[in-house]
Amino acid sequence: MSERPMPRLFLIRHGQTEWSINGRHTGRSDIPLTAEGEREAAEEAAILVGEGKIIDPKNICTVFVSPRIRAHRTFHLLFEHLPEIPHHVTTEEVREWDYGEYEGLKPAEIKKLNPTWTIWKDGCPGGESTEEMCHRIDCVIEKVREHHRAWKEEGKGSRDVVIVAHGHFSRVLIARWINFPLSLGTHFNVEPAGVAILGYNHKNLAEPALNALNLYAKPQ
């Protein structure tokens, strides 16, 4: 029997919103996609999602979707053209960083309140600390890797997991996936509707890697 291909995680940020355009921190606020955000997600679906394409439904084990409407709508735009929408779970585990008192503020507005503030060091007052964010994402990674292990070692399920979520969430997850501190996320730019592919080097589940970033995303 041929060796099973290595499993992958497709990490997708929601499409453009009014707040992603103007740089407002959008955590728990339920901001919808713009018309451009909907169009970009639909165009991306035609390129990336379908039989024989990069995201092939027959390879999908499960999809984790943030409950925020911008992520949920992006998920449906990506998959609704298929004969059957893949198995998915809507869960707060993949929600955006809770910005607490800084919800809805632009970076310059936050700097007026706290000139030395950086989310990667200080977290968010009234929201999630860096420790809380790191723990939440590490738990998500643990679940993904268990799906991957079951597929690679036992042939259970399917090859790929998909997450449809948010910008800071994705940046932290990428950093933690490759075994770096959460703060490394500051060096990753995750565009609206961008697709990252996370996998493994040398066909070894003990060597997590970043394989691609911002596939088909348009720079904002």
List the defining traits of the structure above.
220 residues, globular, 6-stranded mixed sheet, alpha/beta
Query: How many helical stretches?
Result: 7
Compressed to H and E, one letter per element, the order equals EHHEHEHHHEHEE
Strand order in the sheet with the most strands: 3-2-4-1-5-6
Give the uncertain stretches in residue-range form. none
Number of strands: 6
The radius of gyration is: 17 Å
Taking the sheet with the most strands, its summary is:
6 strands, mixed
What gross morphology would you assign? globular
Structural class: alpha/beta
Ends: how far apart? Answer: 46 Å
Helical proportion, percent range: 25-40%
Sheet-strand content, in percent, reads 15-25%
Mean pLDDT: 96
